[in-house]
Structure formats: structure tokens, C-alpha cells
Specification:
- By secondary structure, this protein is mainly α.
- The chain has two domains: 98 residues; 83 residues, no CATH class.
- 66% of the residues lie in helices and 0% in strands.
- Helix 9 runs antiparallel to helix 10.
- It is elongated and about 55 Å long.
Length: 182
């Protein structure tokens, strides 16, 4: 086992500590030596701490993550029930870190439709900030949002979904029946 791998494994274990100083030291090591494997342990640490400084440090590291396979680790984290409490942070990481998720539009639309208002907002932000969406996926996503809109009872979420539809239609260049600026 390499020294770096052993060092990171120790750092991942330290993230579970109740001692915030130990967690912050581990985060410093992860910042220097970490790779995509560090993402989920950091998310678990975030989900299990009430310490503001630890939460800010983890969120800051996630928002700047640029390691290979980061998007895949974050997408996997979206499915983990133990991380439901930090799901909004996971979603925000995609756009804050500028990660390429162009092959996952349906995933974000599904979360926007099924999730709470804050998750919907974060998905809208991811979709707005992703530079490229494949046309077929964007058309399918727009149809899915249009179909779900009449059933949305929360007026704020309905407004967000209208914005999401407008973003998708703008990207597609659809003039007919579109919502929002052209």
C-alpha cells in the first residue's frame, strides 16, 4: 500500500471523529493529497456534523473539486439514503465546481420534479450553468417538465419548473409555446 493511499485512508477514518480539530486536520490532508475517493467520506462527515467550521470547510472543498471522476462520485452520492440531508449540497457542488454532467440531464430533471423546492432550485441552477445539453435529452426533459407542471401544487416550485422549462426551450431554440426570453 502506498504511503499516500495509507495517509488518505487515515484521513477518511478521521473524518468520522467527533473531534472537529481532527476532522479539520484530515480535511487539510485530503485537500493536498485527495482524489475522487475523498468525496463520499467528506459528504458523510458533512451529514454527521453540527460544527459550522467543519461544514464550511467541507462545502468549500466540494465547491472547488476538480479531480477526475468527481461527477461520478457525486452522482452516486445522490442515491445514498444516508446522504439525503446533504443532497442540496451535492447538487450545488455540480454547478459550483463547474463539473460536466451533460450526460445526466434526465437525472437532474427527475430530481427537480420529485425533490423538494430547494432541490428543484439547485437542479435548475445545474441545468442553467451546464454549457451543453444533448438535443434529444433536452427535448425529452422539456416534455417531462411540461407534463408534470399542471400537477405541481407548490406555487414556488411551479415557478421554478416554469423557469426550468424556459431554460430548456431556450437551449433548444424553440419559439413556439416557449416560456421566457428568446
Amino acid at each position: 500500500m502506498s504511503t499516500t493511499k495509507k495517509s488518505l485512508d487515515l484521513a477518511f477514518a478521521a473524518l468520522l471523529s467527533k473531534d472537529s480539530e481532527q476532522v479539520l486536520t484530515a480535511l487539510t490532508r485530503i485537500e493536498k493529497e485527495g482524489d475522487a475517493r475523498a468525496i463520499r467520506p467528506m459528504l458523510y462527515a458533512l451529514a454527521n456534523t453540527q460544527e459550522d467550521l467543519v461544514q464550511q470547510r467541507i462545502t468549500g472543498l466540494l465547491n472547488e473539486v476538480k479531480v477526475k471522476n468527481a461527477a461520478n462520485e457525486l452522482l452516486t452520492a445522490l442515491d445514498e439514503p444516508e446522504l439525503a440531508g446533504v443532497r442540496r449540497t451535492v447538487l450545488a457542488t455540480f454547478w459550483n465546481a463547474g463539473l460536466d454532467v451533460r450526460d445526466h440531464l434526465d437525472r437532474f430533471v427527475t430530481i427537480a420534479l420529485d425533490g423538494d423546492t430547494e432541490e428543484c432550485f439547485e437542479c435548475l441552477t445545474v441545468i442553467e450553468n451546464q454549457e451543453i445539453w444533448p438535443e434529444k435529452a433536452a427535448r425529452s426533459a422539456a416534455a417531462k417538465v411540461k407534463k408534470a407542471l399542471p400537477d405541481e401544487v407548490n406555487s414556488y416550485k411551479a415557478s421554478l419548473l416554469n423557469d426550468l422549462l424556459a431554460v430548456l426551450e431556450y437551449r433548444l431554440g424553440d419559439d413556439e409555446g416557449s416560456v421566457g426570453p428568446k
